[in-house]
Amino acid sequence: MSYRTVLNETSYFGPGAIAELSSEVKKRGLKKVMLVTDKDLIKFKVATRVMKVLDDASISYEVFDKIKANPTIQNVQDGVKACKKMKADCLIAVGGGSAIDTSKAIAVIMTNPEHADVRSLEGAVQTAKKCLPILAVSTTSGTAAEVTINYVITDEEKHRKFVCVDPHDIPVVAVIDPEMSASMPKGLCAATGMDALTHAIEGYITKGAWELTDMLHLKAIEIISRALRSSVAGDPQGRSEMALGQYVAGMGFSNVGLGIVHSMAHPLSALYDTPHGVACATILPTVLEYNAESTGEKYREIARAMGVQGVDDMTQEEYRRAAIDAVKQLSRDVEIPQKVSLVGVKEEDIPFLAESAMADACTGGNPKDPTVEDVIALYKSMM
Ligand SMILES: NC(=O)c1ccc[n+]([C@@H]2O[C@H](COP(=O)([O-])OP(=O)(O)OC[C@H]3O[C@@H](n4cnc5c(N)ncnc54)[C@H](O)[C@@H]3O)[C@@H](O)[C@H]2O)c1
Ligand SMILES: [Fe+2]
């Protein structure tokens, strides 16, 4: 049995780290950048900071600003067209998971045109060639898309979101510059932060977890539990810690997988356009209760990493309850909706949502094998 680990070639951390982009582009011999972002990030003067770095270094670039949250197949195909027209030889993604994921799909199709339909990239696909080089600058603190080998695309026709897993899509350079996420409004900060906590916890209890990823996930749980409240309150130190914590979670889960919190969250975004982090955060405590019996001692370590005192003296029932309660408390403190009905779920959609969740690439990693009836019951319990 061997374990595979795929990470960025180079990552930069800290305030002002975006300045490193120019030398990275130059030393890699890249000539034309496609800068992938959205209109709001230009309006709020977030993406413009990266443009200034490129302007100052006389690096040639063109902007593709048509990214939308929960990106679609059409967004990707429009991006591929734009990339060809620009004759870009690399992409700089500036944004959250949506901009980075769309960049991955574009960059993969540019070098593997047989996947131009996008749908054929679903699941664990071993594409023939590495994607065009991506330099990813995250502006949210949650998805860790800058370090993962995954991307998530919405199929509007089939009302589903699908996960693509491919080591060829990983950004060569990741830039985690907390000044780029400083402008996140409170709600986005809370939702993306809870997405990061979900990655850390699901990654820690997933079937493929092992010692190296356990180390990363426990550290991420510790950082996120310590920093998320102050980050949401706007404290720069909290924002900075969250930028790191979400990346550490990404180093782990990208290499071992997740579980059914993600499988159950994806259909909510596909059907109701629910922000990914909100969907994950709302579902997390309920699935933690469902999974508890299949996690051995792990909830004790989750509780410990979340700052719960006295976990060594607790019974199994007590430490499991303590871990779930700590997650619930954090979720309430950052004002996450506590029911899926509050994020748009309708009773009559539940069978479709459950079928969609069962077909999701994350389901196989869940510590407990769910049936479709289990998933229906879980959604219903959160109405
Ligand atoms: N690739 C992965 O491994 C992975 C993991 C988890 C989630 N995802 C995917 O990522 C997407 C969600 O990404 P996200 O949660 O980062 O949000 P996002 O990228 O969808 O961005 C949401 C909104 O926030 C705005 N925004 C982003 N940064 C901002 C800033 N600094 N200041 C002000 N506004 C800002 C954007 O303009 C956008 O309107 C989903 O599609 C999800 O499925 C991918
Ligand atoms: Fe996520």
From TrEMBL:
Q: Which parts of the chain are coiled coil?
A: none
Q: Does the keyword DNA repair apply?
A: no
Q: Say which enzyme class the record assigns.
A: oxidoreductase
Sequence ranges assigned to domain Alcohol dehydrogenase iron-type/glycerol dehydrogenase GldA in this UniProt record: 11-178
Q: What is its EC number?
A: 1.1.1.77
User: One Pfam match, by short name?
Assistant: ADH_Fe_C
Give the keywords, sorted: Oxidoreductase
* The UniProt record lists the keyword Oxidoreductase: yes
Q: Could you tell me the superkingdom of the organism this chain comes from?
A: Bacteria
| Ranges annotated as spanning the membrane | none
**Which one of the record's GO molecular function terms can you name?**
lactaldehyde reductase activity
Fe-containing alcohol dehydrogenase-like C-terminal domain boundaries: 190-382
Q: Which NCBIfam families match?
A: lactal_redase, PRK10624.1
Name assigned to this protein? Lactaldehyde reductase
Taxonomy of origin reads: Bacteria, Bacillati, Bacillota, Clostridia, Eubacteriales
